[in-house]
Amino acid sequence: MRIPILKLYNCLLVSIQWELDDQTALQFQEDLLQKIHETGANGVVIDLTSIDFIDSFIAKVLGDVIDMSNLMGAKVVITGIQPAVAITLIELGIGLTNVLTAIDLEKGLEKLQQELGE
Amino acid sequence: MRIPILKLYNCLLVSIQWELDDQTALQFQEDLLQKIHETGANGVVIDLTSIDFIDSFIAKVLGDVIDMSNLMGAKVVITGIQPAVAITLIELGIGLTNVLTAIDLEKGLEKLQQELGE
């Protein structure tokens, strides 16, 4: 099973709508980086609105994929982090410090366009 | 397994990136209608760019979900129909006659916004 990645103009959109198992998370990491490479997208929005639980492995993969995307030249915005997920991330020491966040997908896209200066 | 449905402003975006089995297709039908009801979306873009094969059952479900969405008041645009899929649809007698189509997700969204008069 793979997570669909949508290309919209210069951005990629990903909505994670179920708990990821470890294999799917790693596959997602690979797919996203590949898609950034293929499309030359310079922004990524990852929407977690439907996720109400995150474990330490997934949190680490998420942190990694953000750093990797940045390395490849794509800015990442995480949207829709729920209270329980925010609590877990901070308790795990994963502050996602260099990451843009927004309350929902629309706001995330706006923030990204602002950052990209468009 | 479910197909993620993204809400963007007044539209829903769905990207189908792998061959659907019958159960997933029916689940998608149910999820999409439920999401239209929940969000009050008045447009839906279904992107088939990554699909290079469609069987008669999936084609029927797709045709049905378009009619059902229309009944509920949401316009549907299908994007990225590949040659082989177009051939199958026509050969099956599923012309998707009352459906808007576009070459890719961006053009589909533009067409939808035009149709919705925005």
Automatic annotation (TrEMBL), chains A, B:
STAS domain boundaries: 1-112
Residues that span the membrane, as ranges: none
UniProt-listed InterPro entries: Bact_StressResp_Reg, STAS_dom, STAS_dom_sf
Gene3D superfamilies per record: STAS domain
Pfam families registered for this protein in UniProt: STAS
PANTHER family reported for this sequence: RSBT ANTAGONIST PROTEIN RSBS (PTHR33745:SF1), RSBT ANTAGONIST PROTEIN RSBS-RELATED (PTHR33745)
Protein name: RsbT antagonist protein RsbS
Source organism per UniProt: Mesobacillus persicus
